[in-house]
Amino acid sequence: MSRDETPPEIDFDALAAEDEAHFQTYKITFADYGLLSIFAALFGVVFLQFFTRYVLNDSVAWTEEAARYLLIILGFAGAIRCQAVGSHIALEFVDKYYGRKLGLVHLFALAASVVLFAVIIWSAYELIQRTSFQQMVSLPFPKYYLHIAVMVLTTGNLGVVAFQIVQRLKTLKSRGATWA
After folding, report:
1. What number is the average pLDDT over the span 52-81?
2. Cα-based torsion angle of the residue sequence 171, 173, 176, 180 in order, rounded to the nearest 10 degrees
3. Following CA atoms 166, 172, 176, 180 in sequence, which dihedral angle do they give, to the nearest 10 degrees?
């Protein structure tokens, strides 16, 4: 940008109206309360860690490990919600280049997600087998509890994707999509 050019103006009123329209239609579901409770537990553990480390200068040992595991669980649980409502990060600019084949591209993306989730489930199962005798470092629980949670949450996400594949196939079939 040269010195003579002025930066583009930002229309804050339009942005505020867009945000307002989004939050008017946003619905909090029962599953969101589960996510919020996991997040609240994570917040509480991290606050306890911060308070004991920097205020009391005597850190509670288990908070770092608990925060790590809660963050992992929150990530996998939140992925189910994002998959269900379609709010994952996506390359939306690619959508306009496929035209009528866009439904097939989305179907391919869902099929790739199935493969990814199958690998995660298989890996979690292998980790359960290999770590069934190990305890967490500072918490009095077996380490495989985390792997079971990851496996269960990934299976839930796989169920959501399977449902979406069936819906997408029904939509493509009703529109008479060609596969070539």
Report:
1. 94
2. 110
3. -110
